[in-house]
Amino acid sequence: MAGVKTIEETEQVLDNEEEEEVDGVEESDTKDPAKKKKKKKKKKKTATPTEGTGENGTEIVSEKNNVAPVENNAGEGEDKKKKKKNKNKNKSGIKSQTSPPTIPIAELFPDGNFPEGQIMDHGPAEGIDERTAKDRFSSEEKRALDRMHQDIYQEIRHAAEAHRQTRKHMREWIKPGMTMIEICEELESSARRLIGEDGLKAGLAFPTGCSRNHCAAHYTPNTGDTTVLEYDDVVKIDFGTHINGRIIDCAFTLHFNPRYDPLVKGVQEATEAGIKASGVDVRLCDVGAAVQEVMESHEVEIDGQIYQVKPIRNLNGHSIGPYRIHAGKTVPIVKGGETTRMEENEFYAIETFGSTGRGQVHDDMDCSHYMKNFDQQYVPLRLQSSKQLLNLINKNFSTLAFCKRWLERAGATRYAMALKDLCDKGVVDAYPPLCDIKGCYTAQFEHTILLRPTCKEVVSRGDDY
To answer: Keyword Cytoplasm, does the record have it (predicted)?
Structure first.
């Protein structure tokens, strides 16, 4: 551009101005010897070689610091920093996770102390004042009870960290155009690595749910299912991890079209309301009332039509026991229901489902989820194939849920008749996909909470939700 000096001209002007400034200072200060001496020192300092170009064309910096050429020094500095980091890493023994995640959680936390979940006050209970709930934090008696169960708390936190890191990877990895089997296999292989799968001691707690649109729960693809995830789908990713039967049951909803934002937001806020309302001595029906109030305050517009977000009234949260995903207590997501109270050291899955349809689900599509009946006593089996399949189920899953893909992974073949026989005799229960009316959309969010004597810990809480 016209009127712009070249770099060489600019440097020459600056050099001339600097020389004039130094000469002018010396002439004006001749009457004051002290000042003159001071200025001469300054002049001498500026004359010391600083940044410039050497004969060989390399950049040089202040000789005072004995610093090597910039191009060489930068690399050395980075190398020193890396070495220092590696040295500290070796000293502490702490590893950082890879991307995608491959290092088992136990190796990331070799001391056995796993990250604590979100800590909250117990919800205000009917007939119990709020101060009593808050006083639990400072009660030495409650603290002592907390300390008695640290081994259990660490097991559930271990499972929670595996869940967090798995879902973080999957939320970034899942894209429209992938098959549902592809998604499930990636999730399950990641979770197995992170949890350090070890028979019934550590592994997946139930099959990966990836129910789409009007299907709210209990769908996972069977072998040969070619279903593809599409841009306009609303998919619920529901999976579980466990350590020694201590189960994390946690779910989230993925969508790619922003028109579903209000639906997903409404269900997530309803889940948070349920978590906030929960706590020791809280009535289960009060949690359901809190969930319904928040969820029904949301609306979503789809293709020009406004839908109120309805809680799916025949789906619920539940208590969780060792190796038992549904331990007996039900947490409704609508008002009414049981007046049974929550108790200390209980685990709960606070899960909510919202729908643009009727708000009620029914069995539909091919069944994929199965689980051995926890309370079933010994049942005589006549078919040899049924006995063999039951032995395989006992060895690999015990009373944890499983799916057909997992039976095949464990080595089962031609098992359809044996599986039907076990279901007919009540040894195994089938859990078909649960669907609202076709054409509607459903969303789900879920967290596992632990009701410690001192506080409520949202064990599965993460940066994502």
So the answer is: yes
Q: Is 362 among the catalytic positions?
A: no
111 part of the active site: no
Residue 60 lies in a domain: no
Is 326 catalytic? The answer is: yes
Catalytic one among 318, 369, 421, 447?
318
178 Rama sector, left if φ>0, alpha if ψ -120 to 50, beta otherwise? beta
Count: domains in the chain: 2
Q: Is 15 annotated as a binding residue?
A: no
Is residue 401 situated within a structural domain? yes
Q: Is 242 annotated as a binding residue?
A: no
pLDDT score recorded for residue 416: 97
Tell me if residue 146 is catalytic: no
Give the residue-averaged pLDDT of 383-390: 97
Which of helix, strand or coil describes residue 418? Answer: helix
Residues 269, 381 within the same domain? no
**Residue 116 marked in a binding site:** no
Claim to verify: residue 255 and residue 300 sit in the same structural domain: yes
**Full-model pTM:** 0.80
Task: Write out the two tokens for 50.
Answer: 């600083």
Query: 71 an active-site residue?
Result: no
Structural domain boundaries enclosing 392: 368-431
Return the DSSP state at 68.
P
Q: Active site residue: 155, 161, 238, 286, which one?
A: 238
On whether both 348 and 376 belong to a single domain, the answer is no
Which has more confidence, 45 or 312? Answer: 312
**Domain presence at residue 443:** yes
> Which one-letter DSSP state was computed for residue 363?
E
CA 221 to chain centre: 23
Residues 297 and 348 in one domain: yes
Q: Domain containing 423 — which CATH number?
A: 1.10.10.10
Specify the pLDDT at position 123. 76
**Cis status of the peptide bond prior to 100, with omega within 30 of 0:** yes
Residue 318 annotated in active site: yes
Q: Is 446 annotated as a binding residue?
A: yes
